[in-house]
Design a protein that fits this description.
This protein has 11 helices and 12 strands. By secondary structure, the protein is of the alpha/beta class.
């Protein structure tokens, strides 16, 4: 990624994050200042607002338990800020309407304002707790795909997992849960659809987190592709680390499995920003495949809305979107991708997009579930 692009991106993020924090600070000061004192409130607010940034800086330079804790706190703070802003804006508009139509007497405006802010922060907190609880119970999402192409294998079960985001927040316990889910599926093949690592590799290496992920004895093949987060960190360390665990990463490659199934793994769309090398066009990649046989594409990011006339394959498996992760962001992802979640047949090709197993930033999901895909091929 060019230095100019990084600077522009960081400036935009800084403006948005700072604006949201300033907005919440003044609302919170009005709500809590009299209850705990303005000085204590200000100190607590500054610590919380800087926790995520401090955690990211520390994990890059000196990964430790401290950086893990700061990332966890900072992640929850991000989600709290996100929902607090939405709820507070709605509360302000509603209160303005009530004042306008004289439902709220002028003498009670400040009292109602403080009460509305306290209720808004309480609702945001309840949403965060619900969203965190939601991430603790991943589900197995089942899809059946029927193809009319010759293969020696008449029936096969594939487990696919995207967006694990292993790092400071998603750790060994989550890997044991994932291992148990995979064991319950008893798949013939396991596919990892990118973003295995959250980005920064140091927290993963520090405790060898991927060592806790085990695969069922029924799975004779384990393949993976890169996601954008494999490149955000140090891809030169991340990719060898994953492959050292016995996971074959396909980097614009086609392999044949089960005597006829063509499995094509693409580099992530964003890889060029970090490596300076463009990935193969889909048509060029599929020249290596026997299209008379079943063809599965693994591509971390699903096709954009502007990408048309995709063909030459039977199934495309993707992730990346998290199904928005936190409502209403799913409306944003829906406006960007041809399919941002679920299963859809387009021009005779099966597109399946997973919401992913882990999460980025806050370990919170609302309107989205952590999941593992179980795809039966019949």
């Amino acid at each position: 990624m060019k230095a100019r692009d990084i600077v522009i991106f960081l400036i935009i993020v800084f403006i948005i994050y700072s604006s949201a924090n300033i907005y919440i600070y003044f609302k919170g000061e009005f709500a809590f200042g009299d209850l705990i004192g303005n000085s204590l409130y200000t100190i607590l607010f500054i610590l919380l607002s800087f926790s995520f940034v401090a955690g990211k800086i520390l994990e890059h330079n000196y990964s430790s338990l401290t950086s893990d804790i700061l990332n966890i706190i900072g992640g929850f703070w991000l989600s709290f800020i996100f929902y607090s802003v939405i709820i507070l804006i709605a509360a302000d508009l509603l209160r303005f309407l009530f004042v306008l139509i004289n439902i709220i007497p002028p003498d009670n405006i400040n009292a109602v304002k403080q009460a509305s802010y306290l209720v808004s922060f309480g609702l945001a907190l309840l949403l965060i707790i619900s969203g965190f609880t939601n991430t603790e119970f991943p589900v197995v999402r089942k899809y059946e795909v029927v193809l009319n192409k010759p293969s020696h294998i008449k029936e096969i079960t594939i487990a696919a997992v995207s967006d694990i985001h292993l790092g400071s927040i998603i750790r060994k316990r989550s890997m044991r849960i994932l291992s148990g889910k995979l064991e319950s599926i008893s798949p013939d093949m396991v596919l990892l659809l990118g973003d295995i690592v959250d980005g920064e590799i140091n927290p993963v290496l520090r405790n060898d987190l991927l060592q806790s992920l085990t695969f069922p004895s029924t799975a004779s093949h384990v393949y993976a592709i890169t996601g954008n987060h494999e490149y955000i960190g140090n891809y030169q360390k991340t990719i060898p680390y994953i492959e050292n665990k016995g996971i074959r990463i396909l980097l614009d490659e086609v392999v044949e499995v089960y005597e006829g199934i063509q499995l094509a793994g693409r580099k992530d769309r964003d890889s060029f920003r970090y490596t300076g090398k463009r990935r193969k066009d889909l048509d060029d990649l599929l020249k290596e495949a026997d299209k008379e046989k079943p063809v599965i594409i693994m591509d971390h990011q699903p096709p954009l809305k502007k990408e048309n006339n995709l063909s030459g394959f039977d199934i495309m498996l993707s992730g990346h979107t998290h199904n928005g992760q936190m409502w209403p962001l799913n409306y944003l992802t829906s406006s960007i991708y041809r399919l941002q979640y679920g299963h859809k047949v387009i021009d005779g090709c099966h597109y399946i997009v997973s919401s992913g197993f882990g999460s980025w930033g806050p370990r919170v999901r609302l309107g989205s579930r952590s999941e593992i895909l179980e795809m039966s091929w019949m």
